[in-house]
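Build the 3D complex.
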Amino acid sequence: MKPTSLKDIAARLGLSVATVSRALQDNPAISQQTRQLVMQTAREMNYSKNFIANSLRSGQLPVIGVIVPHGVTLFYSSVLDGIEQEASEAGYAVINMNSHESFERERRNVENLQRLHVAGIIASVTQETNTFEHFAKLIDDHIPVVFVARDIPENPFPSPSAYHFSSVTADSVEAAHRATRHLIEQGCRRIAILCGPSRLKMVQERKHGYIEALHDNRLLVRPEYVAYSDIDMASAIDATNALLDLPERPDAIIALNDTLLFAAVKAVKLSGLRIPDDVALIGFSDVEYVEDVTPTLSTIEDQSHLMGQTACQLLLDHIRGQQLPIHRIIPTIQKIRESSRKNS
Amino acid sequence: MKPTSLKDIAARLGLSVATVSRALQDNPAISQQTRQLVMQTAREMNYSKNFIANSLRSGQLPVIGVIVPHGVTLFYSSVLDGIEQEASEAGYAVINMNSHESFERERRNVENLQRLHVAGIIASVTQETNTFEHFAKLIDDHIPVVFVARDIPENPFPSPSAYHFSSVTADSVEAAHRATRHLIEQGCRRIAILCGPSRLKMVQERKHGYIEALHDNRLLVRPEYVAYSDIDMASAIDATNALLDLPERPDAIIALNDTLLFAAVKAVKLSGLRIPDDVALIGFSDVEYVEDVTPTLSTIEDQSHLMGQTACQLLLDHIRGQQLPIHRIIPTIQKIRESSRKNS
DNA sequence: TTGAAAGCGCTAACAC
DNA sequence: GTGTTAGCGCTTTCAA
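Done.
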């Protein structure tokens, strides 16, 4: 049985489809009587408006598309949650796609959202992404884009087609700067940083903040203290061990994500060194269980939920006509726990 | 600038819209020449098919709706990931909604998906949900439903409108039975269970498995060993303390979710008792950091990704015409770690 | 092998 | 205050 349409209601009432449509929209041209009658009948017949038919005219679905680079992390769940909250208040549904850190899949995701004529897109690009035509194409279709967490490089489109998109990112430079400062204040002088292999702008910024803080405090930046590792336990443990084996062993390590952080903890423990006495640890992480490790782990947290909300608000602004791109930087929260606190 | 439509291509080529449409669909009635020409032009003009227009005719969008009761957990991220994977292989997008454990929001979510004419819905009901008319309404619209992780009670719809939906759930009875058995094998005799306040079928089943295992081993089921707590750290710590203060203190606790488990760990540690020597612990949890707690925590894990995949497969079957409901039960995985292993 | 035309459900411009 | 009509982009009879 097909769902009730305006036509069905019109037929039942001996009215025209147009009248019914107007009545349902509270159009002032319609008499109280008719309006009441129509409303009543619509309810009786279990009518619900067909969004698709509507969208065919308006050209867009009341839906916001989201593309994240991977799904199963607290960080992106929380970003999504923030987006979903704002979107649903504004009457939009959220469609959720996953690029699995693959550029090809990201391209396909964008295409599919475009075909669905979503009202706008919020995206966090993959680590592979270094060309942006797939997003550029959206401009012709008037589909606004906001980048969240991972921004694209400045002005990736050479003139004359130079334009750019809004973004919401964490304050990575400041976050790393503050973490480094904190370690210095704790008396650390040989501070290492454990990075993933990523070319993401965000990672560059964190490294930058680290180096700045060392400079500001007249500490030497030693290349051998900047370690790179693949983002899995085994590789990260190896990378940490390499750091610990240096002639001048670091007395602190900053880990750029949670896997690296947890690996560093394991490696230091296994090597028989004490945390934080021999090696202080702090890491970028949104995992709540850092509290349950012994010792509890100092972290820099993103305000992921707020980032999602903010991104969605910007997108809604764009949907409502805002043209100029806006860049919002969300502060991080540094939580000092046992792993980086020297009792003195 | 509006996106290219069939009409645009037809105009450019001096063909009819119908011909262009057919060419693009590889309709054999069209000549090689024309087909080639159309394909070529479509590419040049950057044509992409308008899904909405299509759906207006077919009555449904190539989209699967998912409703989860909360967002920010690894469990549901992983379920979603499984769904998304299967869906995208079959050419469906996934729309993702969150009921926040509120019945009212769940009802609205269902309505919105219905209005969007999604091809099908996968849902995990809220703890409040005990009436199912909102799902029943979907049957008229031929929108199939699969319940995942949290099923609804058997046959909630009395005759003559008796029908039911497919489901994918964890094997809760067996999981709890096995965990209890394991503790008994470790020598525990006073086994307590720490429950949330939930009326979910799943929770009942877990309690059932626990009781069965006690029976099977001729152990008494003591009501005071069945503890209830709200699902937050503070309440759960209180509830655990109450257990520990019993005249005959339990020598093992089974926690029904991760919050309860982590709270139990804290409470036992704070009370100065040793894990597992004084109190063994095991819990239902999908959090990967149970490995990083001291002692490492024994857990029962759901195969969440597989549950998502399976649910999506069932749904696709229904979309393709499968009528009868199917119930799939996914085994859990028990991981024994230090917190429940007595060295003997 | 191709074209003309109807129709999916809805809204809005234009009558009356 | 209400009806008529056209049209959104596409597929699918029915004709030619």
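Chain A touches chain B through 50 residues (CB under 8 Å).
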